[in-house]
Amino acid sequence: MGATDFAKLPHIGESVRRKEDYRFLTGAGQYTDDIALAGTTYAVFVRSPHAHARINGVDKSAALAAPGVIGVFDGADVAADKIAGLPCGWLITSTDGTPMKEPAHPILAQGKARYVGDHVAMVVAETLEQARNAAELVNVDYEPLPAVVDVRDAQQAGASAVHTEAPDNHCYKWAIGDKSQVDAAFANAAHVTRLDLTNNRLVPNAMEPRAAIGHYNRATDEYTLYVANQNPHVERLLMTAFVMGLPEHKVRVIAPDVGGGFGSKIYLYAEDVCLTWASKKLNRPIKWTCERAEAFLCDAHGRDHVSHAELAMDQDGKFLALKVHTDANLGAYLSTFASAVPTILYATLLAGQYTTPQVYVEVDAWFTNTAPVDAYRGAGRPEATYLLERIVTRAAWDMGLSQDEIRRRNFITQFPYQTPVALQYDTGDYPACLEQANQLADVAGFPARQAASKARGLLRGIGYSSYIEACGLAPSNIAGALGARAGLFECGEVRVHPTGSVTVFTGSHSHGQGHETTFAQVVASRLGLTPDQVDIVHGDTGRVPFGMGTYGSRSISVGGAAIMRALDKIEAKAKKIAAHLMEASDADVDFTNGEFTVKGTDKKVTFGQVALTAYVPHNYPLDKLEPGLNETAFYDPTNFTYPAGTYICEVEIDPETGVVRVDRFTAVDDFGTIINPMIVEGQVHGGLVQGIGQALLENCVYDRETGQLVTGSFMDYTMPRADDFPEFKLGHVCTPCTTNPLGTKGCGEAGAIGSPPAVINAVLDALAPLGVKDLDMPASPHRVWEAIQAARS
Question: For residues 278 and 78, is the Cβ–Cβ distance under 8 A?
């Protein structure tokens, strides 16, 4: 079945209420911390208070003697048991052909602590209070060392080395594009726009903090890890094959209900391994639930790029070439996908929606004494979009063009389109997104609104952003050639029961996206059922055959496509059963809306009849078909999917206080086929809030001298609230994806990708009359006020 036919099926495009919401709203959800195993003990981690320190010794004696304590572990114990370090899942090769530097990442620090919050020891006790008290008694002999937390400091001669394996703190230099062609284009350019910018570091703050329970069964020699994680099969693979050296079939990873992830729960974390490992040593289940202040220190952070960009144009504002240099902060260790974010997931998107003939990008990645940096909602795509859309708007102002006109002049209009940075876009309609956004935003009425603001002593600006992202992260063979150390396929199993109801087992994982509803709509539409007749199972390596999890907006386009493949097999077998029942050839059997019919006759049987026959095979072609109706399929995409859109933001600024208020925000997206518009709208709203939050409020700051985390709580790290936003205006354009059977493209990250540059462009547009030409995120009141004062002086 092709995407066009799929889009016409029942339930596709319906705003079906989320099936999972009842249990969440009534308190019946089961998160990791809700799980209570018999004999559970509790872990507390002793974390380094220093950004960089040599560990001369760990005295555990007082903690071991404390009430209720049953175990205290440090790096020496880990080394004695030959537990390996946490692996990085993507190998990047430097421009000189050498592999990236990949220092060991021990689950408990060995020899040195490398950031504030680094794991030094783990205390396990009968109660959480006893574990906390005993952790205070662990005496660590630290020898503080100089720290570097900023990439500009890390690369200076004589900077303190985070790792001996990288004495200059340099992990890799990576590049893409044809530098000589770019240089030639710049030599012939009529105008060049230049821009320096910083993409600020962020702390992910999912509603549910991370949590894990490690459990060992001595009778079966099997481990179970309950964990708040986005991809349990990958967690199991990394932990068994690369860290603990265990056979996979002896380890079960269960990710129950997960309260948000945004990328920060993709990774294999040290805590997960520590609990699994120690549960065997103590023969007791061990639970750890992260506290919010602890999460600020130890969860993988996002963004943190420092970049210089130059855009060459002809006299009419047509783009000729783009060149970019980025310094990326990796933190103290390489997290699971850290190396891919500022390279494969970033630089390949810097063509954007534009016909720029040549692009050259160079990336230097650096170790610092900060928490590891990895994928956070969008993962490289927000960083690329922010840089590109900022410089495109700056170029418009330099050339005396409007923000929409310069985009219109450079949009790609013919597909498929091969970019100069590896990707090939299959389809899209970028002018349609722009025009619809202009209409919904009432851009024609902006001058009147600007005049009204001026009359009240306020500044008003408008900002554009036309983003594109690559979703699905595939195909596996191409990703492997680019350094991926795992496959990027997905698995789906469709199990039809004798009564005709269905259970689907998917390798995707839901942590707020509504998979239990959306996937049920897909299955129900194909089999002529209602969504209530379809149950979705995910997050359990003991029940789901395999899977790569949820990230990169891949769930429906990759996980859903795997389910579609399994449904194809179900339909093919069901037709053979139906043909036998109707005494016809299966080639003459049609299947529509839950009924099998024979062409040219009035014969028909229902899907329910066929399902029952498959399991009660009294009248059944046993010589040709096995009983049962259960099929599994794996799907590996042939290309990324490419959601795109245009966002328009209007802000109002009080020049006396620097306070920025988002007055209007319009988002027009092309997500291809939309299964459930209500869920898509919710995903876009959430993404917009996170993106606008980065642009105006959120900022993770380390002290450049001491390496201490300055923004270590919500008192210092400003999270957006509902009253910070206007009512969003949303629109949709649909050009179905041509590379998957649903025509879907993915929607989960778009809002966070497209919104930051739209906001900052609007802020700079408002401040332009005062002479303010540049401002980095976040555009907090203090920063805006300082920029205004500097311009006035």
Answer: no
